[in-house]
Specification:
Strand order of the largest sheet of chain A: 2-1-3
Distance between the termini of chain D: 64 Å
CATH architecture of the domain at 5-16 and 42-83 in chain A: 2-Layer Sandwich
Chains: A alpha+beta (84), C alpha/beta (233), D alpha+beta (756)
Helix content of chain D: 25-40%
Radius of gyration of chain D: 26 Å
Distance between the termini of chain A: 16 Å
Number of helices of chain A: 2
Oligomer: heterotetramer
Strand order of the largest sheet of chain D: 8-10-7-11-9-12-13
Radius of gyration of chain A: 16 Å
CATH topology of the domain at 5-16 and 42-83 in chain A: Mth169, Chain: A
Largest sheet of chain A: 3 strands, antiparallel
Shape of chain A: elongated
Shape of chain D: globular
Bound molecules: adenosine-5'-diphosphate, magnesium ion
Strand content of chain D: 15-25%
Chain lengths: 84, 84, 233, 756
Amino acid sequence: MKAPMKARVHVTLKNGVLDPQGKAIGHSLNRLGFPEVGDVRQGKYIELELAETDKARARARLDDMCRKLLANTVIENYSIELVG
Amino acid sequence: MKAPMKARVHVTLKNGVLDPQGKAIGHSLNRLGFPEVGDVRQGKYIELELAETDKARARARLDDMCRKLLANTVIENYSIELVG
Amino acid sequence: MKAAVLVFPGSNREGDVAQAIELVTGRRPQMVWHGDGDFEKTDLIVLPGGFSYGDYLRCGAMAAQSPVMAEVKKRAAQGVPVLAICNGFQIAAEAGLVPGVLMRNENLKFVCGDVHLKIETSQSLFTNRYQAGQVIKVPVAHAEGNYFADADTLKRLEDRGQVAFRYCAPDGTVDGPLGQEANPNGSIRNIAGVFNETKTVMGLMPHPENAVEPLFGGCDGKALFEGLVEALS
Amino acid sequence: MTIAAEKNPPVKLPNEPQITPQVVAEHGLAPDEYERLLKIMGREPTMVELGIFSAMWSEHCSYKSSKVWLKKLPTRAPWVIQGPGENAGVIDIGDGQAAIFKMESHNHPSYIEPYQGAATGVGGILRDVFTMGARPIANINALRFGDPAHPKTRHLVSGVVAGIGGYGNCMGIPTVGGETNFHAAYNGNILVNAMTVGVAASDRIFYAAAAGVGNPLVYVGSRTGRDGIHGATMASTEFNEDSEEKRPTVQVGDPFVEKLLLEACLELMATDAIVAIQDMGAAGLTSSSFEMAAKGGLGVVVELDKVPMRETGMNPYELMLSESQERMLIVLKPGREELARRIFEKWELDFAVIGHLTDTERMVLTWHGDVVANIPIPPLVTEAPVYERPWTLTELPPVLDAGKVPAPGSSMADWNASLIKLMSCPDLASKAWIWRQYDHLIMGNTSIRPQEGDAALVRVPKAPTGTSHKGLAITSDCTPRYVQAHPETGGRQAVAEAWRNITATGALPLAVTDNMNFGNPQKPEIMGQFAGAIMGMAEACTALEFPVVSGNVSLYNETEGRPILPTPTIGAVGVIEDITHAVGSRLTQGGLAIILIGETEGWLGQSLYLRELHGREEGAPPPVDLAVERRNGNFVRRQIWAGRVDACHDLSDGGLLVALTEMCLAGGTGVTIRQPAGTGIPSHAFFYGEDQARYLIASGSGDDILEAARRAGVPAVLLGYSGGASLTVEGLVSLPLAEIRQAHEGWLPAYMDTVE
Ligand SMILES: Nc1ncnc2c1ncn2[C@@H]1O[C@H](COP(=O)(O)OP(=O)(O)O)[C@@H](O)[C@H]1O
Ligand SMILES: [Mg+2]
């Protein structure tokens, strides 16, 4: 197998979509003595190893993965980053 | 209130800690027709708005937030990034 | 036995455990709202099941930081027994009252139904009415009950007899494929419940409080509360 | 604030678009409906006003196509405290307690975003029930998915189930039952119907009708965001090819906040502060404020800038139409604001006084002091469009001659295979994969769990005065293929089966909630399905003294012109005075007599046997004789009360042999039976026919029941005895239970674990 490529995917809620988790985290931090914390949004961060050497191809494949599984594009956005 | 600063926090599982979510995602991707996907790890990505202008201070506060709440340092690592 | 059941925003099995305690003691436990830093002296503190703070971020993480938990930690350190069930176990683990962490179930799904548990020891406040090796049937209901501890911690737990219960097949088998099949969440070594070092704090994922009446899931959980009453009255 | 209404036309919002015919159409209003609006208003509306009319006159809120038909349902009985027209129905269950329940659909949102769609469906129905003062004690859900082979089905099943569990589990309400079917007709339009049952003191029930001019109008719960604007309008229009692409903002649920809202509302309800309370469901602030004022014959002023907002830059139009979840509107007694505020703030919820009641019978909305809408309330209600849409009834298909339907084969192997095939077909396979993801045990009151009986049985929390251990039996039923074949029969059958399911536990069936899921009502044959189903339901509800106390209508369930199977889901509740007398359907011991109650003709038309083994969906569905239903059911219930019954199961999908197999699997005990001599019915029709009004009973020797049946004139026959670990039908079937179990319990997990 080829030396693997690494990818980082961020999946975040679209603007305007309610983020119950983020809201609760924000509240909690305020209560814990961090009044400076304002809006908090929580997303997912996924690291993948890919047996792929071609960057363009990798990106296209990752895009496909995001749309098929990793993100729910009705309410989420995603971004892809390739490393190494 | 000051123009807010934005922070990005990544919380990831430590090496050696089993990641059922990452594993399940990896499996699903393999079966969905992405055999090139190897190891997958899932972490959290948190965006925070801070009413704070001093970067050093902000970083120290965020470090505190991570250790108190955002990460469970028994199994998780965290990293902090400041924007604007 | 005087008991206090702590209530966090999002707790939802506090009524179930209060009912079970009332059934064996004839007395309604004190319900303590999380915002109250202080509460009456009690013989037992219960951290009940539920979804404190929605289980957002990590189960139990936010509750572990609430004011009342500082008081619980203080009393636990003084030896006041703490029974931490399900979300309570997650809170206790986050607060450092018991070792280990509870992660997402291996199959990533919420699981509800009866499981079999092997009693690992009868030498505790919580298990004195059971016999070591005995198999009981109680329900589980959780999405993050996958117990994990690093190798050192695990060894220490096992060596010092800090494992309280393990998931097992109906015949008590913990190992092999039968044991694996009986494990509802992927917990390491089928661990369902653990003690702290002094065995005054017990955390467990299953719900003995939902197994105290014959028509409603059987009575296998009742002895846990009876044992506590015996030990603490 | 006094408003000189007509002299003071509302101001327009900045950048407010012109109201063109296209804008009107986009709001789902037909040209003649818009004419009607103009007449009521006497001037051109503002966008906010147009939005309000659009929401209030949508199919979802106005019931314009279904209203004339819904009126035909019986809604009264001595035990009915509140029939349709409130947030949920209320019945008296004795000891000063009331059961409050309703079913609601979230079909379209669940198709677009299965997790959140289903989750917010559960959240919505929970609010409908606790807004009336009840603590919810059980949830059930009725799900219909497309063909398992359809590429979307698996993803939808997985998301919907996770969403229902995610919300209900977090709320701490046990999800104790439901039904799940698969059929290609739902490929583009799944059904997610959720029902909640709650219990309250019968003298502490809260209603939506506002009262008291000047009383404050209070907003509590989550803040308002731009969620699902026009959800109600969306729920009322047919999908077309690009609606999947349009992807309207779906609502995201926050069950944690809803749990806080539940506790806070119940805490406030224990005081005397509330005049009226109403959840914000479909069409949010619009329909809730409108309905409260309309029901009370009053007017209302809402200062929209006081509404707690989640996002910046929101405008009145968005605020009025947002479907953000976990919100309530309350009319308080004067001077109780601080008491209420303290309670909601303790539970960390937003609280705001946003307006007050007036005697003008007008809805006046202000925005930073300007009037932005001013609508007369009564005409919007009384002049709301009501359609008597043309309808054509489906004709009864020819009765299928069972003798002409092939048997499974001549050998025992063929018969064995036929039973395995049926027990593992998508509709009959075990749904444990689903209900294990639902917390069905929380509260410690679940006596009959999923798969243990025909209805779920939940203990009622003890009344302060009560002594007994009452139980509520809860079920949901519908056999869409029967309704499709002949809507009147199907409507009758759905009600009869629900009644039977409750009866089979020993409980007394009391009342019904329904969820009418149909296609486009503008097609006469669809409207005819609706009409036919209602006629059948009305007849059955009347004959069985089983009134309808609440319900919901979901129309336009079509994709590219292809409608779903007509699906009038029936949710039902019954009561048993002493829960220790109830029985489930599990066969847990050997040596019990297995008795068949009811007449068997061998009805194979529309049977699962015909569909699953011969790939045919045809013939007339089994007829429902309501007098016979009643007689047989009452007989069975009396036997249960007399303590003669160990287990009881009604016969439905798949017929006798399927029901018997389910009893064996659930209890882990085998049986040996035979077809009684002289029936004159081919064996496959006897064992797989779906004749109605039948039950299987397991009982000691069986003699006393057979004797009682003879005296009561109820057909009853001994089929055999329980025992062993196999299912044996002499000369036909012999299978170890383990083998059937593997097929039965294996299908769904294996299916969900497959990836194409
Ligand atoms: N099919 C039906 N059968 C009986 N009652 C119905 C039916 N559909 C709606 N209703 C009643 O009409 C009223 C309005 O229903 P709905 O708009 O769904 O309420 P909500 O907006 O509170 O959820 C309720 O009282 C409901 O019970
Ligand atoms: Mg409502």
